[in-house]
Specification:
Strand content: under 5%
Structural class: mainly alpha
CATH superfamily of one domain: Cytochrome c oxidase, subunit III, four-helix bundle
Helix content: over 70%
Distance between the termini: 64 Å
Shape: elongated
Number of helices: 7
Order of helices and strands: HHHHHHH
Low-confidence stretches: 1-8
Radius of gyration: 20 Å
Largest sheet: none
CATH class of one domain: Mainly Alpha
Length: 198
């Protein structure tokens, strides 16, 4: 019995589960990617020789709404983790579904914004702003998309006969780390692109 228990434990020498350490390591590497993209945006900020320029095209009210949606998804993710930790599986599933839907809503806002920008003449190769904007926000949107798929896989797994198993709280906690990271990164991006005067 002791051997079986030992085989299912995944703790490192720090006492933290190695799966959680792997997620922290992955997020640390993602910080480097986003740091490079944000730095590139700041370096080329204001250097576009042709329009449209940020002040002419950015729709702060729409993006503020999408930011609110993403921030609310952080709240529902916290509640999903809480439900998993306290054995409230109905709450966990409902909040997980809510997080997924809010994530999809954010992606919908982003798709709308990208479409509007293209219609107004801003593309990936139009100017420096277009290139750095689409790469940075598109890279973030890709993370949200894969986050939605990740949470959807957990929701589907939670509906199996065995659910997420006895490690359900850990699975949700790790997913929460990823989702909150994506939200925090967006706050930084939103502040730099939309709120700081160009």
């Amino acid at each position: 019995m002791a051997a079986a228990t030992h085989e299912t434990e995944h703790h490192t020498s720090t006492g933290v589960d190695n799966r959680k350490v792997m997620m922290w390591t992955f997020l640390a590497s993602e910080c480097l990617f986003f740091g490079a993209l944000i730095s590139t945006y700041l370096i080329y900020q204001g250097q576009s020789l042709v329009g449209p320029y940020p002040a002419e095209i950015l729709n702060i009210p729409v993006t503020s709404a999408s930011t609110f949606v993403l921030l609310m998804s952080s709240l529902t993710m916290v509640l999903a983790v809480y439900g998993a930790q306290h054995g409230r599986l109905g709450m966990m599933k409902l909040m997980l579904l809510s997080t997924i839907l809010l994530g999809i809503g954010f992606l919908g806002f982003q798709a709308y914004e990208f479409t509007e920008f293209v219609h107004e003449g801003l593309g990936l190769t139009t100017n420096q702003f277009g290139m750095t904007f689409f790469v940075l926000t598109g890279f973030h949107g890709t993370h949200v998309f894969f986050g939605v798929l990740y949470l959807l896989s957990l929701l589907i797994a939670s509906n199996r006969r065995t659910g997420l198993g006895r490690d359900r709280a850990l699975h949700m906690d790790i997913a929460g780390l990823y989702w909150h990271f994506v939200d925090i990164v967006w706050i930084v991006i939103f502040t730099i692109i939309y709120l700081i005067p160009h």
